[in-house]
Amino acid sequence: VEANLIIKELEVIKGGLFKSPKVEIEVIEKREVVKYIKDYIVKLLKDLGFQTNVEIKNKETVPTYTVYSDNDALLIGKNGKNLKALSVVVSQHITKETGKTIKFLIDVNEYKEKREHSLERLAKRVAREVATTKVEAKLDSMNSYERRIIHSILSNNKRVYTESEGEEPNRYVVIKPKEDE
What we know:
Helix content is 41%, strand content 28%. The protein has helices at residues 30-47, 72-76, 81-98, 111-133, 144-154; strands at 5-13, 22-29, 52-57, 64-69, 105-108, 137-141, 160-165, 172-177. Strand 7 (160-165) and strand 8 (172-177) form a beta hairpin.
């Protein structure tokens, strides 16, 4: 039962010599938080001038809020920057309200899913080229989430390996050929 509850301490009243301290708490059900996050996303985006519809998936584990709007491209931003900013703003607000870090994901029109598939295709195609030509290849700069996808896709490849190079925010993945054994 406790796994479905969030307990937020509101106030601690110190006890005296013979009195024990008193703690005032607020108990919130996780499903209420899941709904609250959805409502907050809708309100925030409405205040910013977007007409949206939000669907929730994976309510039991890490909820994913998929936003469908009248301007998905603007919500996503270049390389997902606006989407990341939206996630940070919502996360900080929820942490402030509940006193806990709640894990959730926000996606716009399945952008992240589509992006993962395109990164997977890119990684496999470039890995084949590197394995054939034995010439390393530098990919465009990516955020840490996207670099991690490339690294994990090619982690078990027998012909190439990956390394991240450069300084944030311009870090990029280099795909290098493995030496023949």
